[in-house]
Structure formats: structure tokens, C-alpha cells
């Protein structure tokens, strides 16, 4: 494992360094399936508005019913208790409905199949492809050189050719592009 200045100098299997700055770059570069925070704020505002309007309508209905149909001898605490019970039960129902686990079925594709046509289009040689697979496995240049029985400078040349052919500026970017092209799993 190569160390430079006391810092680990290789990628992890996820395709980024273990340092926070690299993780943040990776996070901001790739689109996330999660919903943005603004979505949750809009949802929360809408829920609060609906609850508030429902409470205002209910209190208005209770006042109309109180003046028209019921005897005025029923104390105010009864109405407050009725509204509290109603909204508590509504909150419990909504909480149970919103927090129940949702079952999401995801189709898992079959075993990985390399796209040979994309490999031909990129012009990556067999040896460069071997180096790309080892880069994706998180190996450093020295480790790759030992594994393939070549010099480190040869590995560096292969890596620079891979970066040029995949139009990438970093190893992690090359791995991500190779995965998008279905060159590596």
C-alpha cells in the first residue's frame, strides 16, 4: 500500500478516496436518488397548512353547532377535548400510515455482461482493460505493477492512456465512466 505524506493514496472499492473532500466531490458530482431537502420542506408546509385549515373548519363547525342546535350548558372544555381527541386520532392514523414500511420491488439484472462494442469504440487494449479492472479494484500503481509483472512507469502509461480514451481527468472518473459504459461491473 503506497503512502504519501502519511496519507493513504489509493481508491476504495466505491471509487473514491477515504478523505472527506473526495467523498464530497463524489457526492456532489453524481445525481442522487434521494429527494432534495426543499421537497420535504414543501411537503411539511403543505401538511401544516392542511392541518391548520382543518382545525379552523372544525372549530367553526363546532361553534355553529353550539349556537344553533346544542344547549349552551355544555362547557367549553368539552369542545376542546373533542377537538383534541379528533386531532390526536388523526395524528396517530397519519403517523401509522406515513411510517409503515413500503415494499419496493427492484428488478435485479442478471449477471454482469461486458459491452464489447463499447470496449471497441473506446479503443482500450486488453492490457489497458486489465489495468482498468485493477484500478476499479482499488489497487495502486505499484500493486498493479506487481500483479501484472511490469514496471510502475508502464502502469502509469497505461493509466494515462485509459484516462485519455475514456476522456477522464481522474482514476475515479474513469471508473465511473467505465461503469456507465458497462465495461466493468
Describe this structure in words.
With 185 residues, the protein is mainly alpha-helical. The chain folds into two domains: 3-32 and 112-180, Winged helix-like DNA-binding domain superfamily/Winged helix DNA-binding domain (Arc Repressor Mutant, subunit A, Orthogonal Bundle); 37-99, no CATH class. Helices cover 63% and strands 2% of the residues. The protein contains eight helices and two strands; from the N terminus they run ββαααααααα. It has a two-stranded antiparallel sheet. Strand 1 (3-4) and strand 2 (7-8) form a beta hairpin. Helix 5 crosses helix 7 (152-165) and helix 6 (141-148) packs across helix 7. It is rod-shaped. The model is unreliable at 1-9, 15-21 and 23-33 (pLDDT under 50).
Characteristics:
185 residues, two-stranded antiparallel ribbon, rod-shaped, mainly alpha, 2% strand, 2 strands
Give the structure's gist in a few sentences:
The chain is mainly α and 185 residues long. Helix content is 63%, strand content 2%.
Distance N to C terminus: 24 Å
Low-confidence stretches: 1-9, 15-21, 23-33
What is the CATH domain class of the largest domain?
Mainly Alpha
Proportion of β residues?
A: under 5%
Shape: rod-shaped
Mean pLDDT: 77
| Beta strands, count | 2
Structure class: mainly alpha
Number of structural domains: 2
Helix content: 55-70%
User: What is the CATH architecture descriptor of the largest domain?
Assistant: Orthogonal Bundle
Strand order of the largest sheet: 1-2
What string gives the helices and strands in order? EEHHHHHHHH
The CATH topology name of the largest domain reads Arc Repressor Mutant, subunit A
Biggest pleated-sheet summary: 2 strands, antiparallel
Amino acid at each position: 500500500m503506497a503512502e504519501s505524506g502519511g496519507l493513504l493514496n489509493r481508491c476504495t472499492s466505491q471509487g473514491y478516496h477515504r478523505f472527506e473532500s473526495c467523498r464530497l466531490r463524489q457526492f456532489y458530482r453524481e445525481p442522487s436518488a434521494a429527494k432534495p431537502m426543499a421537497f420535504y420542506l414543501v411537503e411539511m408546509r403543505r401538511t401544516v397548512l392542511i392541518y391548520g385549515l382543518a382545525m379552523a373548519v372544525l372549530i367553526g363547525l363546532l361553534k355553529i353547532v353550539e349556537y344553533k342546535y346544542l344547549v349552551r350548558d355544555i362547557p367549553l372544555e368539552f369542545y376542546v377535548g373533542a377537538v383534541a381527541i379528533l386531532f390526536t386520532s388523526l395524528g396517530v392514523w397519519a403517523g401509522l400510515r406515513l411510517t409503515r414500511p413500503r415494499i419496493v420491488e427492484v428488478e435485479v439484472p442478471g449477471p454482469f455482461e461486458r459491452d464489447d462494442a463499447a470496449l471497441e469504440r473506446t479503443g482500450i487494449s486488453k492490457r489497458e482493460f486489465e489495468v482498468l479492472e485493477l484500478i476499479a479494484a482499488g489497487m495502486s500503481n505499484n500493486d498493479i505493477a506487481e500483479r501484472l509483472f511490469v514496471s510502475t512507469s508502464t502502469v502509469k502509461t497505461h493509466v494515462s492512456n485509459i484516462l485519455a480514451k475514456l476522456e477522464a481527468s481522474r482514476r475515479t472518473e474513469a471508473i465511473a465512466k467505465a461503469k456507465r459504459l458497462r465495461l466493468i461491473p
